[in-house]
Amino acid sequence: GLTLTFVAPDLYTRQTPRRFYESSDEVIRGIYETNCMAPEMMAARVAPAMVERGWGRILNVTTMQPTMQRPGFCPYGSSKAALEMASMVWAQELEGTGVTVNVLNPGGGANTLGIAQEVREASARGDMPRLVEPDDMVPPLLWLVSSHADQTNGRRFDANAWDVTLSAEQIAQQPGWPCGLQTLPKP
């Protein structure tokens, strides 16, 4: 049977970006333990059984690459970047085993506890892009952990761009893009 395990993501509720050196050791450690170390340790525990079985899914939730690179968003962004890069390596190491590793991210600001009320209100008014609801993550998540995604490995998907009108076969033709970081041009 299919067993899914999730780690509570995003230990980060402060709204005002700050410089990296203004975060306490406790905050930095907590964010890295939640967003990077816990997924890495959990994947290391379950991967051997998945490989032995010849089938399994590791699905990590990261964030948009601009958030990873944005000043004032460290250590959150850098912890998600570390998980993104780890996902790329795991996908390569597990290639051909029947175990896939992919990344799913909201594709925009997520309407979670870490979002300030004023941001929620601005989104509701249309003054900024619509926040991605947690339920928007469900359709791509269900597809990525299904047998329809057997050939999808080392890819990254945005939930807000997921087309729920497509069949599983049509979705399989949508490649996503490689997980891992690519250099972005400066705006």
> What separation lies between the terminal Cα atoms?
47 Å
Radius of gyration (CA) equals: 17 Å
Spatial arrangement of strands, main beta sheet: 1-2-3-4
Strand content: 5-15%
Beta-strand segment tally: 4
What would you say the CATH architecture is? Answer: 3-Layer(aba) Sandwich
Helix content: 25-40%
Instruction: State the CATH superfamily name.
Output: NAD(P)-binding Rossmann-like Domain
Short description:
The protein has 187 residues and is of the alpha/beta class. It has helices spanning 25-53, 65-69, 76-94, 117-125, 138-144, 168-172, and strands at 56-61, 99-105, 155-158, 177-178.
Give an overview in words.
- The protein is an alpha/beta fold and 187 residues long.
- The protein has a single domain, classed as NAD(P)-binding Rossmann-like Domain (Rossmann fold), CATH 3.40.50.
- 40% of the residues lie in helices and 10% in strands.
- It has six helices and four strands; from the N terminus they run H-E-H-H-E-H-H-E-H-E.
- The chain has a four-stranded mixed β-sheet with strand order 1-2-3-4, with helices on both faces.
- Helix 1 (25-53) packs parallel to helix 3.
Q: What descriptive keywords fit this protein?
A:
187 residues; alpha/beta; Rossmann fold; globular; disordered N terminus
